[in-house]
Amino acid sequence: MINTNPTTATVNDRQRAETTRLTVYVTEPATASATGFYDIRARKWSDTILDTLNLERSILPEISWAGEVVGNVTAKGKNECNLPEGTPVIQGGTDTHCALITAQAKTNEIGIIAGSTTPVMLLTDQLVCDKQMRVWSGHHMIPSMYTIESNATLTGAYLEWVVGLLCERSSDSAKCVERTFNELEVLIEDIPPGSNESTVALGPNIMDSTKITNVPLARMFFPQPALPSVIPLDSGALIHAVMENIAYS
Predict the structure, then answer these.
(1) CATH code of the region 156-248
(2) pLDDT digits (tens, 9 = 90+) for 112-124
(3) The CATH number of the domain covering residues in 2-90
């Protein structure tokens, strides 16, 4: 994201914005790898890309590795964040990479971090780039490691959507959503693979980053409910079909 006003311009995201509020304008290589401005091999901002786009280097943050002390809370940071002035500020990392470390994922292992989206990350000890540009390559938070990422795009967000849709006419939709998620395993435990011949294609798919902006219409197929020989679609089968769409992607 590029923020502009008549006198300044910066490239920012939530992590960089919070660090900037506390102390200085800084990011780390795993985050920088996803900006499109970073030279992963050289481990620095790409002069070629900046020159091509006629962008000033000053709009980009300094780069520090996760875990490094990047400054101290300033007087402004103290007022905005209610933290003691002078407190050391340590460079953090992206949520997916932090989750990989928590999961103790090692070189040549694949980690699947399921949330609103689902990154599928292979950890490597050298930079590997897909010549067909179907997947993303970047730094891991650990300096000696790299990642190759395939992403099923929105996944958990679609599960939230379908549960919210089923609950929207409830007298208390928020409570209905909470109850449905709490009872999700019970709700779908008797639904067989194939979701009683119901199929949902909301968007999760095998990744091809060259086509990632091509967003097809969502599709849903289920047996005609009036036929006596079929099991009619119900809320459990619908949710199960959405989860199968996510799992198979």
Answers:
(1) 3.30.420.40
(2) 999 999 999 999 9
(3) 3.30.420.40
